């Protein structure tokens, strides 16, 4: 496909079809119809029908991606007429392109365009989730440092902080720290939290924050009192998770957070040098 045609089609897709409402990106089917080279609405709706079936087969609700709307068009002598239209998500557009006539240059372009753009969105979502986990891990480190400091300030020592944290793990997981490390295949010299999913990092952080608050609020002067408080808080957090159908010890391990951090830093450097590196 010639470069000029690719550039022209890209401009048409992005400037004349893509719209946003309340922050949600969409295309109108009647705009997409002409962009894909279909002159007849009935021919285009046949392709849309196939795309809806593909959407359902893939496990997605067609109603979430193909939304019926009406469009007002001008008629002769100043009259207006409402005609049926569809609001389409990017995924819906991708499925329509996949079910279109590949001999059409517009369809061939759209198949690649929406595949690439959908992949871009998926990459962005994945990186946001990875960044969220990294932030949660750093927050837990800060909170546990504060808890250690509180224990020292109020009891005169914190040599048993590691034991208190392990008792918290026992209460949260119903298993010891070592048992969870074996389950998640965590190296002996690495913290369990480095392999915990985001929800567990936030759960541990919340329990530790409550311990810090109550240790100060109630002026707990012994490590045993703070330890009991930490166990109670982790048990409470565990019960909340169980009530919501989340069993902490059954969750799979997440990727080593240090690898995630290195990858995000590398990708950030690449993106500064090459804005298109996101698609690689």
What this model shows, in words?
- The chain has helices spanning 3-17, 29-35, 41-57, 62-65, 90-98, 105-155, 161-173, 177-184, 198-217, 223-243, 257-273; strands at residues 19-21, 24-28, 66-74, 80-88.
- A four-stranded antiparallel beta sheet has the order 1-2-4-3.
- Helix 5 packs antiparallel against helix 6 (105-155), helix 6 (105-155) crosses helix 11 (257-273) and helix 7 runs parallel beside helix 10 (223-243).
- The chain has two domains: 3-100, no CATH class; 126-279, no CATH class.
- The protein is of the alpha+beta class.
- Strand 1 and strand 2 form a beta hairpin.
- The longest helix has 51 residues, at 105-155.
For the biggest sheet, the summary is: 4 strands, antiparallel
Low-confidence stretches: 275-280
N-to-C span: 22 Å
Beta strand count: 4
User: Any idea what the shape is?
Assistant: elongated
Average predicted local confidence, pLDDT: 86
Rg result: 27 Å
Annotation field: number of helices: 11
> What is the helix fraction of residues, given as a range?
55-70%
Number of separate structural domains: 2
Strand content: 5-15%
Class derived from helix and strand content: alpha+beta
Give the strand order, joined by hyphens, for the main sheet. 1-2-4-3
Following the backbone from N to C, one meets helices and strands in this order, namely HEEHHHEEHHHHHHH
Features:
alpha+beta; 4-stranded antiparallel beta sheet; 11 helices; 280 residues; disordered C terminus
